[in-house]
Records
---
Amino acid sequence: MMKTWGGVVAWTALLLVGTYADAGLDAALQDGKCHNYKSHDTCVKNECYWCKSAAVPSSCYSAGEAQSLPPAVFQCDKEAEERADAEEEKKAAMTHAPVFIADHVPVPFGEEAKSCHFYRTREKCLQNTCYWCKSAAVPSSCYSKEEATQLPPAVFQCEHDAVVGDMWELTETPLDAAGWEELFATWKEHFGMSYDTAMENQVRRNIFQHNGHMVAAHNADPDVTYKLELNQFADLTWDEFQRLYLANPQNCSATSSGNPLTYSDVPAEKDWRAEGVVSPVKNQGKCGSCWTFSTTGCLESHLKQKHGKFISLSEQNLIDCAQAFDNHGCSGGLPSHAFEYIKYNGGLDTEETYPYVGKDGKCKFNTYHVGVEVESVVNITSRSENELLGAVGTVGPVSIAYQVVDDFRFYKSGVYSSKKCKQGEQDVNHAVLAVGYGTENGQKHWIVKNSWGTKWGMKGFFQILRGANMCGLADCASYPVVK
């Protein structure tokens, strides 16, 4: 953990770097493809280039990478060199040909998580927990942790966001104003923040300092079971954060009625992520639309379980169209109400056909673009964590809602609990997705997927105390039965 305030976090030297020539869609896909081949024969057979080095293990590269590797360090087979020359001639011949260059290279849902080589910028690379590596010999590029550990430190310098991230887990604060100024400047650079005026900068700096004292005081307590950090929300007041990111409190007591559900053979622990049925973490932005992300995340998981494939579903469809079911767009709603809307509406559109804009708009639902249909909705008996446990343990991820209080926005890791939050059905202000449960250091906890991006918490997830209906998390639990 870092307790110093100044400077940029030291580069960690680690990994093998290849270069990616920006040659449009085909080159982008080719680069990512070649890294999947682990043997010389398979590499060459697929028109890639097998390159050796005394410093690092042999590996498979694309044409652009093979040509850019320094010959004093890497030796690529003769076939690779001949193909590289031929490919260069092909590129030259196509220079004046009409081409389509995509602004975004579409890849199968979830595929980017499998390969750091898809990320072309330092920001994207670090956001997705990969390593961005520099060398004087070759262009900078993005690699996995496993690749990073193989690089000679004398040649490559790599940066990893987890290293930078430890800087914000304060246990003590700067001693003077200059220290705070330096820490704030480093934070702004790390999170890409800037302000229009010097006055606004000073206001945000003061808020940052206030939040820093709160984070440091919490982390210095040896008895706490979770850690806080100065994350992307560190320049906001609690009132601002509530207005921008949380839903208005909403009564969900409708789920308290009905027949109690029973589940058999409930495992002692469960993590649906390990079974590959939890879709990637999304980011709701400055809109109180958490309920839509809880809904789509739950549906995406149940679709994967039933039909074997991920389909990214439209949160914006729910924001714009589900008001008749007591939902309120960016001002809040409930997953149980959203599931009912989808059931009676005849389905929910896909993310691709109805993309997210993060603000209230006119309903543009199109029945031809439906990605999922709901057969029925199962509401867990309110406040019954045992029933919730059975559902998560044997059925799949379950949408839940609870009350967020001021320190939760800075959560980093550990098992969260609070004496400040309430447990009433009328107090819930945030909806998320329970994807599992387990025990850590003797504490039973839930594993939960949030919608504040992968830089928040534990790569977008958090753990919260299980067995005490903490913050009312079992008050409003529900899941769909998909067709």
Note: The longest helix spans residues 198-219.
---
Amino acid sequence: MYLISVRTLNKTARAISQRTREFMETKVEQRKQFECLLIQHVKQQEELGQRSVRGPFEEKKMTQPAQECPLSEDTDRQVSAATVIQAGWRGRVTRTRVTAMHRAAVILQARWRGVLARRSLALMREQRRKFIWAATVIQAMYRGYWVRCKLRQVMQHAKYVSDEENSLEEDIDLNMNEEVC
């Protein structure tokens, strides 16, 4: 739909690559912190004499030994920040989906209204065609009636004139016969 320049595409690809690297580095760091917390938790449980807790965690392979896992003071802040970032991201994704669904619904509604309008227009055209046909038939019937009436009048007038001529001829013939006699 839109024409995007190669320069813009390259810039976007670089930004995506950079963000992907940052994301992966963050994930690795989070994994290390989780493992540190897990190791510390296991150690605390061992100290308390709860050896049954250790069972499921022994199978996990840790990337760092327990001595290299200092628990940072900012862990709570980082967890809170991560939660805020994740919530913001989920909100953005949800808003994007809702916007896309809204646009799709608007497009569907517009197309459906177009279908209904075309159907209505076709129906109106068909009704108009039938109306014009009916008007044409009525006009033809009236014209035929009018012509027949006029023809009847002309015929009656012609008959009257013919009768008058005949009567005049008879009168003339009678008058001539009377004069001759």
Note: The chain has a mean pLDDT of 82.
---
Amino acid sequence: APLAQEMKPVVDDSLAGVGALELYDSVMKQYGKVPFAPEVDLDMSDYVVDKGMDGIFYYLAREEAAIRNNPAKRTTDLLKSVFGN
């Protein structure tokens, strides 16, 4: 399964465990009572998963750049075959 699908239940449990989802729902109910306020369509779990994915790929890209720029970081046969010796 894609990484985001694997992260979703963990994020859901974590957000529920600290009360974030309950608090968010309460805030959004109050916000919904504000006249002329624009509608907000945000799923907190999806948002957290998206930001988590952004973070994972940010650090993955940094590590890839380090491996490409520093041959000493090519420590396994797989890395050597992918990035060269």
Note: The CA atoms of residues 19 and 81 lie 47 Å apart.
